[in-house]
Fold this sequence. Notes:
Mean pLDDT: 77
Number of domains: 1
Largest sheet: 2 strands, antiparallel
Low-confidence stretches: 148-152
Strand order of the largest sheet: 1-2
Distance between the termini: 110 Å
Radius of gyration: 28 Å
Number of helices: 4
Amino acid sequence: xxxxxxxxxxxxxxxxxxxxxxxxxxxxxxxxxxxxxxxxxxxxxxxxxxxxxxxxxxxxxxxxxxxxxxxxxxxxxxxxxxxxxxxxxxxxxxxxxxxxxxxxxxxxxxxxxxxxxxxxxxxxxxxxxxxxxxxxxxxxxxxxxxxxxxxx
Length: 152
């Protein structure tokens, strides 16, 4: 006990407190860096996935309109994935297995443009789905022949 009092009386208490404080600060900065990196990786992954899904949506819509029944199922799945990503990036949520906060104000204008374009595209997809349901019920077939209209 007397040895402990001796070391503190010599002036080692202040360096010890500073060392513990430095350790806690480094730990906090490291955890913040890991969290920020995880969010950044999730945002970049979501952007790449949205690019791929937008191409897939166009392909599947075309295939569906050409009469491929499975294309409508894939179209709905891709539509749902894209809508989930737009919603998660806009107001926070799960992206690629990571919980992310709402996107930063600096990217909000670009994200708002994507959301506006998505609303138009989503309406078109809903129309495609409606057409596929009507075609399926009536047993209508699609013929891949060009049709020419003449004004008379």
